[in-house]
Design goal:
Blueprint: E1 6-10, E2 13-16, H1 24-33, H2 39-51, H3 57-68, H4 74-80, H5 94-108, H6 114-117, H7 123-136
Antiparallel strand pairs: 1-2
């Protein structure tokens, strides 16, 4: 196993590079943060932490959004795909969006500025934005 190196995020934040394994303390924290998300979301987050691969982001984004969307709208998220509008179709208000962002920042070890959120209108916009942020690391 290679030794972990740091990738700088800016503004003084740094995140350890993936090493192929997750420290037990970090995994427990991750699972606790995602405890109300689906097992598929938790596994995707574990995979992301192990590999740093953006391939897991779609499942993470959908799972985090699903966690905060009203239960009666969750089936719409499963069927709707990337074109679902956050506000109009899923009822995501500004407070809910902040909760989604805070959890995504925590899970993905990234920092998101409020200005970055303004153009995000659909589930696909959120996925594309997070993929672009992860690729900048």
């Amino acid at each position: 196993m290679s030794q972990a190196t740091d990738r700088v995020l800016g503004a003084g934040d740094s995140v350890p590079a993936p090493t192929g394994a997750i420290a037990p303390k970090d995994e427990a924290y991750l699972l606790d943060a995602l405890k109300r998300c689906s097992p598929a979301t938790r596994e995707a987050a574990r995979e992301y932490r192990r590999t740093g691969s953006a391939d897991s982001l779609s499942a993470i984004v959908e799972g985090i959004i699903e966690h905060y969307v009203e239960p009666d709208l969750r089936p719409r998220l499963c069927r709707g795909g990337d074109t679902l509008r956050l506000v109009e179709d899923l009822g995501v208000d500004s407070l809910t969006m902040l909760e989604i962002v805070y959890l995504a920042e925590d899970v993905l070890h990234i920092s998101i500025e409020n200005e970055d959120l303004r153009p995000l209108r659909t589930v696909g916009d959120v996925k594309a934005f997070l993929v672009s942020r992860v690729h900048r690391l």
